[in-house]
Design brief:
Blueprint lengths: L15 E5 L6 E2 L2 E2 L3 H15 L3 E5 L17 H11 L4 E3 L5 H8 L6 E4 L13 H8 L4 E4 L21 E3 L1 H15 L5 E5 L4 H11 L5 E4 L3 H8 L14 H14 L2 E3 L3 E5 L9 E4 L8 E5 L1 H12 L3 E5 L12 H12 L4 E4 L3 H8 L8 E2 L3 H8 L5 H4 L3
Parallel strand pairs: 1-4, 1-7, 4-6, 5-6, 7-8, 9-10, 9-15, 10-11, 15-16, 16-17
Antiparallel strand pairs: 2-3, 12-13, 12-14
Helix pairs in contact: 1-2, 6-8, 7-8, 9-10
The structure holds adenosine-5'-diphosphate (ADP) and magnesium ion.
């Protein structure tokens, strides 16, 4: 973030500040059911209103068609939750750009907040349409991007708008980028990376990048079966990607060449269906029955992985070890989460997505050094890509 200005350097008093936040939160029955992302934006919002800024908050939520207002994707529930958290009135503006939006923001006083409706109600947002970006910029004097979760997308409100206004990174954006890049650039060693989740194909670039940085790479989740295939093992009916066995083989070779200790399961929990009530069995990795699927790592594997985790000075974890959403297959993910939590001396980063959901489910979030709010964005950072939303601020 070397050449990117922080909001600490901005003079916002009396200014209209367009703040891109990531309020892409789940809503159930008209109520925000997980407000993590809203709370993550509060330090920036509170700082800017405390300094007398007039805030225009901008976010997307879900995937509307881009043809105008849709109740299902409205930011109404978000406005209500934000109002509760701040103890302050929030004006929700139905119009994104144009005369009513202008009037609404011009009527603000210092410290007021207007939340524009879901910015993806206009399809020009995702196209990073220059005219749309310029009209959005006309509402404000200053631009702040605090939406790390959307920083891997070049959209009008995350990239285009920055061309027109003095631009700054919010606290969350700063913290996310700095925490992740400092672990990747100069990790305390041993650096243990843990990867799981469903597909090798989703994470291949992350695996590739981490093999240049980590001392140990632990693999769990469904993706381990593609690696096990590459090692000539039978994986029964487990989820696997036949087209990716060659790439998995290349990763095994790269690990050997780089001296990275790549750990794969030695035992697995198998069942004949992904079902809460399935009857499960623990088998050695050499004995997966042909009609059964591996749905979690087994106890010997948890012990092996926990040992490696206990010896780490820094840990990056993305992707659950099994189908943690269901009780019979949660033990491996829980075991790894506990091992990471118990290593209090290490820097521990949970890299977004379902791994964060798992850590929250097991109530271990406060034992981690840092939990990323961005799944895709944190993965792209690990891959070594430049994030368009970050680049636009420089
Ligand atoms: P993240 O969001 O943390 O990056 P992914 O989206 O890649 O993780 O994968 C998470 C999903 O992978 C979970 O829904 C989980 O149920 C599934 N999963 C993990 N292990 C297995 C397995 N052995 N078989 C089938 N699905 C699995
Ligand atoms: Mg996921």
């Amino acid at each position: 973030m070397a050449n990117i200005k922080s909001i600490d350097e901005a003079n916002v008093k009396g200014k209209k500040v367009l703040v891109r936040v990531d309020f892409n939160t789940p809503v159930k029955d008209g109520v925000v059911s997980d407000d993590t992302r809203i709370r993550a934006a509060l330090p920036t919002i509170e700082k800017l209103i405390g300094d007398g800024g007039r805030l225009i908050l901008v976010s997307h939520r879900g995937r509307p068609a881009g043809e105008g207002f849709e109740e299902e994707f409205s930011l109404g529930p978000v406005a209500r939750r934000l109002q509760e958290l701040l103890g302050k009135d929030i004006v929700l503006c139905r119009e994104l750009i144009g005369p009513i939006a202008k009037e609404t923001v011009d009527a603000m006083e210092d410290g007021d907040i207007v939340l524009l409706e879901n910015i993806r109600f206009d399809k020009r947002e995702k196209k990073n349409d220059p005219e749309f970006a310029s009209e959005l910029a006309e509402l404000a004097d200053i631009y702040v991007n605090d939406a790390f979760g959307t920083a891997h997308r070049a959209h009008a409100s995350t990239a285009g708008v920055a061309e027109h206004l003095p631009s700054y990174a919010g606290y969350l954006m700063n913290k996310e980028v700095e925490t992740l890049t400092s672990m990747l650039d100069d990790p305390k060693r041993p650096f243990v990376a843990i990867l799981g989740g469903s597909k090798v194909s989703d994470k291949i670039k992350v695996i590739d990048a981490l093999l240049d940085k980590a001392d140990t790479l632990i693999i769990g989740g469904a993706m381990c079966f593609t690696f096990l295939l590459a090692k000539g093992k039978g994986v029964g009916a487990s989820l696997k990607e036949d087209d990716w066995v060659k790439e998995a083989q290349r990763m095994l070779d790269k690990a050997r060449a780089n001296g990275v200790d790549l750990l794969l399961p030695v035992d697995v929990v198998v069942a004949d269906a992904i079902d809460e009530n399935a009857s499960v069995e623990i088998v050695s990795i050499d004995d997966i029955p042909t009609n059964m699927m591996g749905l979690d790592i087994g106890p010997k594997t948890v012990a092996l992985y926990s040992d490696a985790i206990a010896g780490a000075a820094s840990i990056f974890w993305n992707g659950p070890m099994g189908v943690f959403e269901m009780k019979p297959f949660e033990t491996g993910t829980l075991g790894v989460a506990e091992a990471v939590a118990q290593n209090e001396a290490a820097d521990t980063i949970i890299g977004g997505g379902d791994s964060v959901a798992a850590v929250n489910k097991f109530d271990l979030a406060d034992k981690m050094t840092f939990i990323s709010t961005g799944g895709g964005a944190s993965m792209e950072l690990v891959e070594g890509k430049e994030l368009p939303g970050v680049k636009a601020l420089s």
